[in-house]
Amino acid sequence: MSTVDDRGAGARRPAPAAAPRPRRGTSRVPVGLLVPAAVGLAALVLPLLGLVVRAPWSTLPSRLAAPGVLTALRLSLETATLATLLSVVLGVPLAWLLARVEFPGRRVVRALVTVPLVLPPVVGGVALLLVFGRKGLLGAWLDSAFGITLPFTTPGVVVAEAFVAMPFLIIAVEGALRGADTRFEEAAATLGAGRWTTFRRVTIPLVAPGIAAGAVLCWARALGEFGATITFAGNYPGITQTMPLAVYQTLEGGDLDGAIVLSLLLLVVSVTILASLRDRWITSP
Amino acid sequence: MRAGWTRGGTAALAVAVTLAVTGCGSNSTSGTGGGDPQSSASSAGVTGSLTVFAAASLTESFTQIGKDFEAANPGSKVTFSFGGSSTLATQINQGAKVDVFASAAPANMKTVTDAGNGDGTPTTFVKNQLVIAVPKGNPKGINGLSDLVKPGVKVALCAATVPCGAAANTALTAANVKLTPVTLEQDVKSALSKVKLGEVDAALVYRTDAKADPSDVDGVEFPESAKAVNEYPIVVLKNAKNKTAAQAFVAYVLSDRGKAVLTQAGFQAP
Prior knowledge:
The complex is a heterodimer of chains A (285) and B (270). Chain A is mainly alpha-helical and 285 residues long. Chain A has helices spanning 2-12, 31-54, 60-64, 67-100, 106-118, 121-132, 139-146, 154-179, 183-190, 195-223, 227-232, 243-252, 256-280. Chain A has one domain: Orthogonal Bundle (MetI-like fold), CATH 1.10.3720.10. In chain B, 51% of the residues are buried. In chain B, α2 (59-72) links the parallel β1 (48-55) and β2.
């Protein structure tokens, strides 16, 4: 896939290798940049280090084997994955629309898509309740017509997570679409392919790395989702209590060690999965 | 380039969102301006700011008492943080700068005093018991705990770590009712709000909470609540920045004027 990208980029720009590059060493890093950078790194890493240092290592195995832990972890992984799938199915077409189709109000739609990014997740949860709640605008109809209620159900968790995480995917995919060379799509159209075929056979393979990157970002955000989930879907073990909710409730119950163990587990699982996906799909320069 | 901007914007937004997420869990309180060591006045009025952590069920009555206290003591400022007693106890034990703690149950108070964070012995100032909060007009016709397990009835409870949840479990055990709630809430007010939103058909809350929202909810009394009466202790904390004001506030809660506000809200005398 990347070969197509390279050819596209290479055709546009002259190869940079021709000119001698200035050396970028570590010898001349200004102190004014180095110090805040070091403080910034410490601010990000120290709290995680705190988790590791304070972890009750001796009781760790028995705590990990406690009945509720795996239930919460499995629920978290399942709902985050489903939320990501939902986001891909709905988000990729939306991103395509934003990137490829000129329509009135496109700027407004793009702004609306990013609103959940800046919205506090708790506010998102309240908003979801008002629309999909049992007395909500759509929820009341869903309940009376189909007997479907989302709050306090696992699908409700998926909806809350998708609401918060989908914009990450849309923005990543739209960026990839805008960066992709449209001449391949034009060539496909010239050769008689319809827009749907072009989308399936040319566009999707072209931006697949962008979709993968967006999906990973979306999944990570969904896995950590707390505010919208506890507000919209509630908190019950095995049904709606994902790992972040379990961490919160354990800590609030005064069990600091238990909360540390759960946090550490979530940290290890998410970092492991993200790192393995990164190696496979996303090649950073 | 547009695509470049979009990607940069995403990163910036991601940071902003993360900050918002981490910020939302903490109950911030203003701890500045406290500390008035040379306050010699006891009846002449105290000054300075004062931070009080109080159980969610005390929201309305303590807010009123805080206003009365400030009026009686010009120059004083009371800041409240209301929440689940277990949440507040955890925050105090993790070093939150607080002057007074009022818990909805002795167990959560004990967490704080066992950690050596109490100054003196806690005083029980009120008692409270549970009712079944139902939407106004009681559309599902709930008249007791056994009605809560009827098919199609959704119930919110407090988590067992919070006093209202512990009391609910005691009452349900006493009634021999095996109830599966749809959600376990972190404090009594969020359980009540699920009733007000219409998302659940009933929630076990304190009598005072049902009474505080007469336009939205009805409180259904049930006999087993007598087996799960909560005693509310209050204490000045060891790390209080403004101990004089803290003691004066506790004295005010225990005074006749404080009691009048609490009784009015539906609390029982200890």
